[in-house]
Automatic annotation (TrEMBL):
<dbReference type="GO" id="GO:0051539">
    <property type="term" value="F:4 iron, 4 sulfur cluster binding"/>
</dbReference>
<dbReference type="InterPro" id="IPR050157">
    <property type="entry name" value="PSI_iron-sulfur_center"/>
</dbReference>
<dbReference type="Pfam" id="PF12838">
    <property type="entry name" value="Fer4_7"/>
</dbReference>
<keyword id="KW-0408">Iron</keyword>
<dbReference type="InterPro" id="IPR017896">
    <property type="entry name" value="4Fe4S_Fe-S-bd"/>
</dbReference>
<keyword id="KW-0004">4Fe-4S</keyword>
<dbReference type="GO" id="GO:0046872">
    <property type="term" value="F:metal ion binding"/>
</dbReference>
<feature type="domain" description="4Fe-4S ferredoxin-type">
    <location>
        <begin position="51"/>
        <end position="80"/>
    </location>
</feature>
<keyword id="KW-0479">Metal-binding</keyword>
<keyword id="KW-0411">Iron-sulfur</keyword>
<protein>
    <submittedName>
        <fullName>4Fe-4S dicluster domain-containing protein</fullName>
    </submittedName>
</protein>
<dbReference type="InterPro" id="IPR017900">
    <property type="entry name" value="4Fe4S_Fe_S_CS"/>
</dbReference>
<comment type="function">
    <text>Ferredoxins are iron-sulfur proteins that transfer electrons in a wide variety of metabolic reactions.</text>
</comment>
<feature type="domain" description="4Fe-4S ferredoxin-type">
    <location>
        <begin position="244"/>
        <end position="274"/>
    </location>
</feature>
<dbReference type="Pfam" id="PF00037">
    <property type="entry name" value="Fer4"/>
</dbReference>
């Protein structure tokens, strides 16, 4: 019964999404701090009213852009959660991503538009040692109402080829799939382990960010990739931003008041203490790059982390204060 109370169904044409109001960063706030979904919604179907996210059913065009861009999965569609994509990817020898308008074969992995293809989805394939193709038809893209541009949207894709165990090919015009994978398959199958973990995180029983969201679903595959390939790699700022890799630094003026920790919606910031001192720590893999901490405290400086290595899995000490 709790599940039906927690979830608010959004029934629009053939779109059956779910809105977790409590997961929205603007829940019960008089002034919105995140407007990503509203800015993306071209017909203006999404709006805030009295601290809650609302949907005008008559305006929704079922584009699903809000689902793919919401940083906390407040807007959710069961068929589009990442472990559902993994089921398809695991069955494919070569993983081909394309949009709904350009699908050619049953095994293609489709997203509503290539502009919302996130690098996290690609890391699902990389973790399983699968080569990736991105198929686009320029003529279709030119006439599409989404006004998609590879240069603006996914120009980071070719840079992924410089990372270990990553292979991406962008194809257009004549559709030609790779005949076989140039990469070795993994001996260890992560599918069952990761799927169980993600399903457990998705079926939440309460609405406390810090207690229940924890590890962001899409981060799971980047985490697994870092565990497999522990070699330090440097990324361009463009790719690092696409992966939402964040570096947080705190000035010496910080008094450890705890405001940043209290306002962090996903528990990326925490304060621990021992008999001698209090310690402010940051766990980057939980961060969703919402910038709430930066807007909460003048002593926090946020930038993009361009170094990809195993250290990102660890908690980083930002500031200490003697007790």
């Amino acid at each position: 019964m709790w599940f039906s109370l927690l979830k608010k169904k959004i029934g629009v044409r053939n779109f059956q999404g779910v809105l977790f109001e409590e997961y929205c960063l603007n829940s019960n706030r008089t002034t919105p701090i995140c407007t990503t979904c509203i800015e993306l919604c071209q017909p203006g179907a999404l709006f805030f009213d009295n601290g809650k996210l609302n949907l005008d059913y008559s305006k929704c065009e079922n584009c699903k852009f809000c689902i793919y861009h919401c940083p906390t999965y407040a807007i959710h569609l069961e068929t589009d959660v990442i472990y559902k994509y993994e089921e398809k990817i695991k069955r494919s020898e070569v993983v081909c991503f394309t949009c709904d308008q350009n699908i050619k074969f049953e095994g293609d992995i489709t997203v509503p538009c290539l502009s919302i293809l996130s690098p996290e989805l690609l890391f699902v394939a990389f973790v399983h040692k699968k080569p990736v193709q991105i198929y686009l038809d320029k003529n279709t893209c030119k006439t599409c109402k989404n006004n998609w541009s590879m240069k603006k949207s996914i120009s980071y894709l070719q840079e992924l080829n410089y990372l270990s165990n990553c292979h991406v090919e962008i194809i257009n015009g004549q559709y030609e799939k790779m005949k076989e994978s140039p990469l070795k398959r993994r001996a260890i199958d992560l599918f069952d382990v990761i799927t169980r973990r993600l399903k457990k995180q998705t079926n939440l029983t309460s609405c406390s960010y810090n207690e229940n969201i924890g590890e962001i679903l899409n981060r799971t595959y980047l985490l697994e990739y870092l565990k497999i390939d522990q070699k330090e790699q440097y990324l361009s700022k463009k790719l690092a931003k696409a992966l939402k890799l964040v570096k947080i630094e705190v000035s010496d003026e910080c008094i450890l008041c705890g405001d940043c920790v209290e306002n962090c919606p996903v528990g990326a910031l925490s304060i621990t203490s021992n008999t001698k001192k209090e310690i402010l720590q940051f766990q980057m893999m939980k961060c969703i790059d919402c910038e709430i901490c930066k807007n909460t405290c003048l002593y926090i400086n946020r930038s993009t982390e361009t170094k990809l290595n195993e250290d990102l899995l660890k908690r980083k000490t930002l500031h200490e204060k003697l007790i």
